[in-house]
Amino acid sequence: MSELTKTMSATEADARVDLAACFRWFARLGMHEAVANHFSASISDDGSKFLINPKWQHFSTIKASDLIVLDTNNPDETLLAKIDPTAWAIHGQIHLLRPDVKCVLHLHPIYTTAISTLKDPTIKPIDQNTARYFNRVSYDDCYQGMADSDAEGKRLAELLGAHSRLMMGNHGVLIGSHSIGVAFDDMYTIERACQVLATGYATNQDLNLIPDAMAEKTAQDWESIEDFSEAHFAETKRVLLIEEPDFAE
Question: How would DSSP label each residue in 102-153?
Answer without folding.
Answer: -EEEEE--HHHHHHHTSSS-----SSHHHHTTTT--EEE----SS--SHHHH
